[in-house]
């Protein structure tokens, strides 16, 4: 099977490197409209064909990975799908939920694999958290709380939620396998362009779960931390830790039943801390492998197009909530 990559920018280079290393498929061609970028690519990968022509590119490949600016995703993905090509598109999948739904419908109609590259789902840390939740180790998940803050990089076209919260929304759905029923968001712009650089997003679930994200481009420190609260145990994921990224706390509480309902008696439990071993395979390599196997074996990948569409739906609703002073928006 021949794979092609559209876009040889910052992230496109990572995709090229990881698809080139795959054994079950061959990286056939790369398309970019900047000839200088293609020249530098050919020095590193002389066997890979280069082109600036989309029609010519599509004749060479069976599947396409798109790593271009968000506003181009829909048009490029649609052209590739209509040409009968399997498609992997970078996150966010599209600029609107309606566009994402249309791409899913085209892929289903043509029997093609459509996938969104939410790379974090393939990290050893998220895979381990998924395993701990699925095997009942932490009990029922009650909440997820995430902090994803740093200084910069201010984006000129999308706010901080579109830039950073996309990761957390996809991770929450992957871990809990439950869609939120409503979202609330507040944010503020300090750059006088109406694009929020600090924002707080809350997801509400029908099952009484809650998820909250703190996102900022205006923090003096970089923090990448997620808490997953189960009713048996709790997980802390610190993605900036070099080795002990995941810690499982045997910590929790139980409510005692008393006749006097006006009193709340809570029994707290503080136990051991467990640090599980994580798979160290590069997440992007595993993602590329999953895309190829999904096509060859006709199965659903972990980062499905449905997750990609849900992320866009939540981000759209969060934008609406921010502009309406934190109003709860039903999905």
Summarize the structure.
By secondary structure, the protein is of the alpha/beta class. It is built from nine helices and 15 strands.
In the sheet with the most strands, the strands line up as 14-13-12-11-7-10-9-8-15
Q: Quote the beta fraction.
A: 25-35%
Anisotropy-based shape: globular
CATH class identity of the largest domain = Alpha Beta
Number of individual domains: 2
Q: How would you portray this structure in words?
A:
- The chain has helices at 10-20, 35-44, 54-60, 70-82, 97-110, 124-134, 160-176, 283-296, 305-323; strands at 2-6, 26-31, 49-51, 63-66, 86-90, 114-117, 141-151, 182-188, 198-204, 210-216, 218-230, 234-238, 246-256, 265-274, 329-330.
- The protein is of the alpha/beta class and 331 residues long.
- The protein folds into 2 domains: 2-118 and 284-303, Rossmann fold, CATH 3.40.50.720; 121-280 and 312-330, Dihydrodipicolinate Reductase, domain 2 (2-Layer Sandwich).
- The strands form 2 sheets. Strands 14-13-12-11-7-10-9-8-15 form a 9-stranded mixed β-sheet.
- Helix 5 (97-110) runs antiparallel to helix 9 (305-323) and helix 7 (160-176) packs across helix 9.
- The two termini are 39 Å apart.
- The mean pLDDT is 94.
């Amino acid at each position: 099977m021949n794979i092609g990559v559209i876009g040889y920018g910052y992230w496109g280079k990572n995709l090229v490197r990881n698809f080139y290393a795959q054994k079950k498929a061959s990286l056939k061609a790369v398309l970019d409209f900047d000839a200088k970028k293609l020249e530098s690519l050919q020095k590193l990968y002389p066997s890979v064909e280069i082109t600036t022509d989309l029609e010519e590119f599509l004749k060479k490949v069976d599947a396409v990975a798109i790593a271009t600016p968000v506003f181009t995703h829909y048009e490029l993905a649609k052209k590739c799908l209509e040409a009968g090509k399997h498609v992997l598109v970078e996150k966010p999948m599209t600029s609107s939920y309606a566009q994402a739904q249309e791409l899913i419908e085209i892929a289903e109609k043509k029997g093609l694999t459509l996938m969104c590259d939410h790379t974090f789902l393939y990290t050893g840390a998220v895979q381990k958290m998924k395993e701990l939740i699925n095997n009942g180790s932490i009990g029922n998940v009650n909440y997820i709380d995430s902090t994803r803050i740093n200084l910069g990089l201010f984006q000129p076209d999308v706010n901080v939620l579109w830039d950073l919260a996309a990761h957390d929304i996809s991770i929450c759905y992957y871990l809990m396998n439950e869609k939120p029923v409503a979202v609330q968001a507040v944010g503020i712009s300090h750059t006088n362009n109406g694009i929020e650089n600090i924002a707080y997003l809350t997801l509400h679930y029908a099952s009484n779960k809650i998820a909250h994200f703190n996102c900022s481009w205006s923090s003096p420190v970089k923090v990448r931390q997620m808490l997953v609260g189960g009713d048996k145990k709790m997980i802390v994921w610190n993605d900036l830790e070099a080795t002990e990224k995941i810690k499982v706390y045997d910590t929790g509480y139980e409510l005692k039943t008393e006749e006097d309902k006006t009193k709340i008696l809570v029994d707290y439990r503080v136990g051991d801390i467990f640090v599980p071993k994580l798979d160290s395979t590069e997440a992007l390599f595993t993602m590329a492998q999953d895309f190829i196997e999904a096509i060859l074996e006709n199965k659903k990948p972990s980062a499905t197009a449905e997750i990609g569409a849900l992320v866009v739906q939540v981000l759209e609703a969060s934008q609406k909530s921010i502009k309406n002073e934190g109003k709860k928006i039903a999905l």
